[in-house]
Design goal:
There is one protein chain. The chain is 37% helix and 22% strand. The protein is α/β, with parallel strands linked by helices. The chain has a single domain, classed as Rossmann fold, CATH 3.40.50. The protein has a seven-stranded mixed beta sheet with strand order 3-2-1-4-5-7-6. Strand 4, helix 5 and strand 5 form a beta-alpha-beta unit. Helix 5 runs parallel beside helix 6. The longest helix has 14 residues. It starts with a helix and ends with a strand. Bound molecules: S-adenosylmethionine.
Length: 178
């Protein structure tokens, strides 16, 4: 079975076009930002958020090393402020919940903020734009958050991808139809 991050990349690559904007709501070590940068190209923008300076620096370095840092706007602040930094009409907003690998495991994403940010993200997507959320039920608090995100997306007619096994990470996807 493919990893949820890989599933998310496959779906987003079929949606985001060169020249548009993609949002990385949880920059972490910058893998999703780099991926989005490859899709939007030099004429597009990637806007990335993280509450940890270490994550912002790690993301900046990853894009610099790849020679694509010119397309990214990095914000060291919560993704609940997305609408203040991003113009509506984006192709994709990607969330990868949980903690920063190799960083402070206490700075996990939190259910209440995540749900608020998902609502904000919905309002920023263009028609046929896509929201992806990789959920991690395996750490304290992650279980509750993953269940809340699953319920949120099911209530909106989105898709929940199957887990490889109980407790494994999984992907949820929501597409803006109108
Ligand atoms: C699993 S990591 C993201 C991995 C990243 N997408 C990558 O490709 O490397 C989750 C990140 O969410 C960040 N985070 C936690 N709460 C946040 C919030 N309210 N707003 C934005 N980022 C947050 C954490 O600091 C952590 O770096």
């Amino acid at each position: 079975m493919k990893r949820p991050t890989q599933q998310a990349h496959e779906i987003v690559s079929g949606v985001v076009k060169e020249g548009e904007t993609g949002v990385d709501a949880t920059a972490g070590n910058g893998h999703d930002s780099l991926f989005l940068a490859g899709l939007v190209g030099e004429s597009g923008r990637v806007v990335a958020f993280d509450v940890q300076e270490a994550a912002i620096e790690s993301t900046r370095r990853r894009l610099e090393d790849a020679g694509v840092a010119g397309c990214i706007d990095l914000w060291c602040e919560s993704h609940i402020r997305m609408a203040e930094r991003v113009e509506p009409g984006v192709g994709a907003v990607m969330f990868n919940l949980g903690y920063l690998p190799g960083g402070d495991h206490a700075r996990i994403t939190r259910t209440d903020e995540t749900l608020r940010a998902l609502e904000v993200a919905v309002g920023l997507l263009r028609t046929s734009g896509i929201l992806t959320v990789v959920c991690y039920p395996g750490h304290p608090g992650g279980d509750e958050e993953a269940a809340a995100v699953k319920a949120w997306v099911e209530a909106r007619g989105g898709q929940v991808f199957p887990q490889a096994r109980k407790g494994a990470p999984f992907l949820v996807v929501w597409e803006r139809r109108l």
